[in-house]
Amino acid sequence: MSTKVHHALEQLKTNGVRITPQRHAILSFLMESMEHPTADEIYRALSPKFPNMSVATVYNNLKVFIEANMVRELTYGDSSSRFDADVSDHYHVVCQQCGKIKDFMYSSLRDVEETAEQATGFKVYGHRLELYGVCQECASDK
């Protein structure tokens, strides 16, 4: 088990969340995946090892992780929600053809948040940035 997964499980225990084998597997899969999987993809990947696990179990556990601020739900309009266990400040590039999502780092846009607060009087708590394009694989198919 990676140190990152171990730390996350300890954090859940501290918050009174019981660690079931399914919960451990879902969290490990998310933390090791760079693909931003859907709940269905997580279910399909883990169902051979956990034949009694349902899609509802995956969704319920994802909700627990989201409430614990360990996972982010990414929604992009018409497609299924995707889940990201990297809760650090980062942004996403989304392929408009296949839906693949890649992370990229960029210096914080805190100054944009501050400008928005000054212009609107809102208290801004965060932002989300996605860029859209075509990934290398889809571009090379043309």
Automatic annotation (TrEMBL):
Keyword set, alphabetical order: DNA-binding, Repressor, Transcription, Transcription regulation, Zinc
Family (UniProt): Belongs to the Fur family.
State the InterPro entries in the record: FUR (IPR002481), Fur_C (IPR043135), WH-like_DNA-bd_sf (IPR036388), WH_DNA-bd_sf (IPR036390)
> Does Transcription count among this protein's keywords?
yes
| Residues forming coiled coils | none
**What is the protein's given name?**
Peroxide operon regulator
Which Pfam family name is an example for this entry?
Answer: FUR
Q: Which gene encodes it?
A: perR
Keyword Transcription regulation belongs to the record: yes
Looking up CDD domains in the UniProt record yields: Fur_like
